[in-house]
Amino acid sequence: xxxxxxxxxxxxxxxxxxxxxxxxxxxxxxxxxxxxxxxxxxxxxxxxxxxxxxxxxxxxxxxxxxxxxxxxxxxxxxxxxxxxxxxxxxxxxxxxxxxxxxxxxxxxxxxxxxxxxxxxxxxxxxxxxxxxxxxxxxxxxxxxxxxxxxxxxxxxxxxxxxxxxxxxxxxxxxxxxxxxxxxxxxxxxxxxxxxxxxxxxxxxxxxxxxxxxxxxxxxxxxxxxxxxxxxxxxxxxxxxxxxxxxxxxxxxxxxxxxxxxxxxxxxxxxxxxxxxxxxxxxxxxxxxxxxxxxxxxxxxxxxxxxxxxxxxxxxxxxxxxxxxxxxxxxxxxxxxxxxxxxxxxxxxxxxxxxxxxxxxxxxxxxxxxxxxx
Length: 373
Ligand code: TRP
What we know:
- This protein is of the alpha/beta class.
- It has helices at 18-25, 32-42, 47-50, 60-68, 87-103, 113-118, 125-141, 158-169, 174-181, 189-209, 224-233, 275-283, 293-299, 307-316, 320-332, 337-362, 366-369, and strands at residues 5-8, 11-14, 28-29, 54-58, 74-79, 106-111, 149-153, 215-220, 243-247.
- It contains 17 helices and 9 strands.
- The strands form 2 sheets. It has a 7-stranded mixed β-sheet, sandwiched between helices. The protein has a two-stranded antiparallel ribbon with strand order 1-2.
- The radius of gyration is 21 Å and the shape is globular.
- The N and C termini lie far apart (50 Å).
- The model has no long low-confidence stretch (mean pLDDT 96).
- Bound molecules: tryptophan.
- Residues 9, 76-80, 110, 112, 115, 198, 217, 219, 223 line the site of tryptophan (TRP).
């Protein structure tokens, strides 16, 4: 069946119907009136909001209400360190950086080395922690404010996390994890427990402050199931429910079906790719072009499922007018895929050069961001 797809925190497969996910997961769409509210509060709208990349939420109005009352609130996001970082991983980070700049919120950034060990990405836990440290360089390179950002690895911050994790774990039954994640008897008990750990930073800001601190979680929609559970548990353990804002997943460079995957290097651009490899990935990317130049000039191309256009739209072309021009000339046949890829490469190359430089500098700044037990 062409319309079959799967979205879980561990697997994304098929052509995702994002509208159906909103219904399935029970989230809310970001509507034009809500966008207006965000624009008024932030002074501008991030391109990912204007274009519906961030398109779904839970309780975002509550965060804006509290913000307008002057209540300090916190941001929470995270990274499961399974591999190097690609552009798809960075979507929520770009947006979180914008939120931190615009609202001055403190960011809690969880690195779940435990998760990636438990879910079998690694034979050895130390390997997951090591990849976590590599990923932290990319996070710091995003430009977060060190005074307002706390990054922690689960295995190194567990003393702070554990008291809340046990409160959460006591309120989650095995049958809930079966219903939400499809866990079975053969899953190891660490996997079954893990959601309790990912829930902790939803409540940590309140626990630390000793008063209610609203928390907003920018994340891929695939992470929502964890937070559905966290929100269920929250009132039972005396914490406010975290709010969420969800992004669609960046399509693979290889074409429709599935998000970018670290196990398929050609599917995305990694921050550690050489410029040469990155350029090659873009020149080999799947497009909405025609079989021949002649046909494309005559009939035009289709940006709908084009991975190159998705890269413009999601990240690399913040200017709406130029994006519309790219789309128009694509459809009319004035623009050929080769030129379009070359123009995109110019943008990606600039980004990669800057990011790689910032990532190098981050090596001396890890201690400015990291919190440990
Ligand atoms: N489970 C996430 C992953 O595999 C990592 C993560 C932990 C996270 N806490 C989060 C992601 C909060 C988004 C928001 O990448």
